[in-house]
Amino acid sequence: MTIYNSSIKNYINNNHEIEILNSTCNFSEGPLWHTDGYYLFSDIPENVIYQVFPGKGKKIYLQNSGFSINDELVFPQMKGSNGLAFDIDNNLIICQHGNHAIAKYDGSSIIPVVSQFNQKPFNSPNDVIVHPNGTMFFSDPPYGLKDQRLIPGKYQPVAGIYYRKDGVIKLLCDQYQYPNGVCLSPDKKTLFTCSNKEFERFVLMFDAETFQPKGIFCNENGDGIKCDKHGNVYLCTREGILILDDYGKRSALLELPTIAANICWGGKDQKDMFITARQNIFLIRNFMK
Q: How far is CA 124 from CA 54, 78, 106, 114, in A?
């Protein structure tokens, strides 16, 4: 680990071990902790959501998790589910590339929740987070489309970030060509958004209740984005997992054997870091103090 600011040691354990829980994935994404003691994650090309108990192998949790229709315009390698979250009723919320939609899994069936905006399907919903008040935020880049490019005649003409409140969907942001990660601050008052493209090197902030822009948090870019309970922001980049302080300054860089797509916090005290990183699934126990 590279330390840029020694104060980060007040929040994380620098002496840590990176465990490889699995190395047989195709493209792992959408990590999520369940309080019953297991993690969920998507394997996008396999169109499967897997379940992992620490110390045990992965097993199929949900098949056909992101693609259940026949559409020749879908980018075939990336047709499955991506980002995952729980809603306020503890249903599993699923970003579906191939179905161009967001669905929920209630334990028995997959039910469409968000499928279109302005009478057109979405591009390929990528990441999602649900506010405690029920508002859903999600990104919609063209990564699941043919050639990973917008097809305005059939899908959304912009790659947007949206919110859904009281059943109504509205466009929050159209400033990225490839919007990606979304996450909430510890107090749930701020939404952070990012793009993993180098030419879109800015993390934006929005008020999570009024939906008004709050400016640029930092000039960095990343795939997944998460906050810890202390207010530090974690960006999954090609360099590794970049940790920023609450002012957007670099605090540390956690280097990994493969490129991380996203992380989540888990374990009994929510101090373990679970990482989806291409073919690998990593776990760092007690990473956060």
A: 30, 9, 22, 12
Does the domain at residues 27-225 carry the CATH identifier 2.120.10.30? yes
Instruction: Output the pLDDT for position 57.
Output: 86
Locate the domains of the chain by residue range: 27-225
Interatomic CA distance for residues 134 and 88, integer angstroms? 6
Predicted confidence (pLDDT) at residue 38 exceeds the cutoff of 70: yes
pTM score, whole prediction: 0.96
How many whole angstroms separate alpha carbon 19 and alpha carbon 133? 35
Query: Could you give phi then psi for residue 155, rounded to 5 degrees?
Result: -120, -165
Q: 41-93 pLDDT, tens per residue?
A: 999 999 999 999 998 889 999 999 999 876 655 566 889 999 999 999 999 99
According to the model, what pLDDT value does residue 113 have? Answer: 96
Three-state secondary structure readout of the chain: CEECCHHHHHCECCCCCCEEEECCCCCEEEEEEECCCEEEEEECCCCEEEEECCCCCEEEEEECCCCCCCCCCECHHHCCEEEEEECCCCCEEEEECCCCEEEEECCCCEEEEECEECCEECCCCCCEEECCCCCEEEEECCCCEHHHCCCCCCCCCCCEEEEEECCEEEEEECCCCCEEEEEECCCCCEEEEEECCCCCCCEEEEECCCCCEEEEEECCCCCCEEECCCCCEEEECCCCEEEECCCCCEEEEECCCCCCCEEEEECCCCCEEEEEEECEEEEECCCEC
Burial 97-121 (b: 16+ CB within 10 A, else e): bbbbbbbbbeeeebeebbbebeebb
CB–CB of 81/30 below 8 Å?
A: yes
Residue with tokens 């990593």: 282
